[in-house]
Amino acid sequence: MATRKDIAIVGYGETPTVLRSGRSSYDLAAEALEAVLRHTGVDKNVIDGVCFAETMSETANPFWGVYLCEQLGLEPSWMQVNGLGGASTIGGVARAAAAIRDGLCETVLVLSADAQSSWPPTEQGAQRFEFQYPVGLNGPPGVFGLITQRYRHQYDLRDEALAKLAVTQRRHALMNPNGTEKLRKPLTEDQYLASPYVSEPLRTLDSVMVCDGANAMLVTSTENARRLGLRRWVHPIGYGEAVNHKGTDPLADITESGFTVAAPKAFRQAELTPGDIASVHLYDDFLIALILTLEQTGFCDVGEGSKFVMETDLSYRGTLPLNTSGGQISAGQPGLAGGGVNAVEALRQLFGEAGERQIADVRNAMVTGIGMIPYGKNWGVSNVLILEQP
Amino acid sequence: MTQQNAPKNRPRPFPRLNHYTDTQPFWDATKEHRLLIQYCRETGRPQWFPRSASLATGRRDLEWREVSGRGTVYSFTIARKPWPGHEDRVPYICALVELEEGVRMLANLVRVEPGDVRIGAPVRVAWETLSDGDSTVEYPVFEPV
Fold first, then answer.
1. ipTM
2. Of A138, A144, A377, which to mutate for an interface test with B (greatest number of B Cβ within 10 Å)?
3. Does A376 sit within 8 Å of B16, measured CB to CB?
4. N or C terminus of chain A with fewer C-beta within 10 Å?
């Protein structure tokens, strides 16, 4: 087969993203499951595989996946829990496809739920107690502050490009009824630029707001989708992943991510190039990550990200629509379910169900994930998923 | 610099020594204000932060060697909002310092104003005494040369 169209994503579901909902990950997961069952019209009992994202809220429970099956009434013959952070959701699609191809199961629920803003923070341990907490680096904003400062030193980082990204995504979020209420108000470039620094040069409005929420998708073989009487689906045709990229090089460039490895792999598998991609749904925990991702997945040269952003219409009506539901930065980050926010939006667009923010060209889409913020280097996991119409 | 800082609701985090791997030689040396880092014996490659295995070979054939304490600022960020326990230090500078020997350490920069820090600036190790009330530890920081 020239392109990999033997696997189909047949439906998706999503809860609203809510700041401090007071709900549990289990409760949010139930709502996402119900939404995907409604969307596909299939019976719950066709699900014989599950692929869950690890959470911030329930991670103290090493049996989270089995508990979730118990809560949702699922009896799968294959289960996996992915600890890839914001890369877990699309990593889950790739693992589901592999499990289906290997005959371990037929129909996989890929589900991500988290209530990070309602539950106590978790501890990552390791070297942090000894070599990080006494220094006081302010978690993810601190690490992204270091990355931003170094990028600005090596390349041309323009505040106007970051402001344009913030405003473009906020305009999209205003059209997204599932976005968090707290952020559903217009934003100007000047407001972005006046936003206070958290870990300078990183501003408050460079960062996500951590919320609660859940999302789900159903993955099966294309053959089984037909057997189930389904008529619509999208194919995951290319995937690449990189964990601990250059982690053994103590002097690696901290602006270089695993996308430099994961993206070429995904494009090779998909037999496409960045120029063929109709829309991008990029993991956005911080705005600077969008610049690095556009460069390192091949949409422009390294160092040219600001120029590319300024010269490209990234709105839903533009030449390269970006994060058309507002992304996590403007619609909220439902904890470690955040990796599904832009993935579900890509599916919504390819299914032609995005309402007033529907994009015209829905041949294909690229989705990315980022996971884990390490000590003194680039992020821990990068992955790329390319979706295509039948 | 005069600044109203948020009230502290917990003490500054005190390092938990020997917490995830054997770092005792490092902390013993800090008492004498000597900076040690790990080296892979087989390849001679340095590594930081300390690990239980060589990043080069995957084997546990490691040793501690004293280093110069000299380096340059690779990158830095100015904490305007603190990590919990650091409220009374705002603004403070967290930097990645590239040591001459070829590793990068996350550390505070001291005796320099936030607006005066530059990437590439030469720095040297200095020591800050941290206390948890019962014991103290000499913790590495860096200052302009």
1. 0.96
2. A138
3. no
4. N
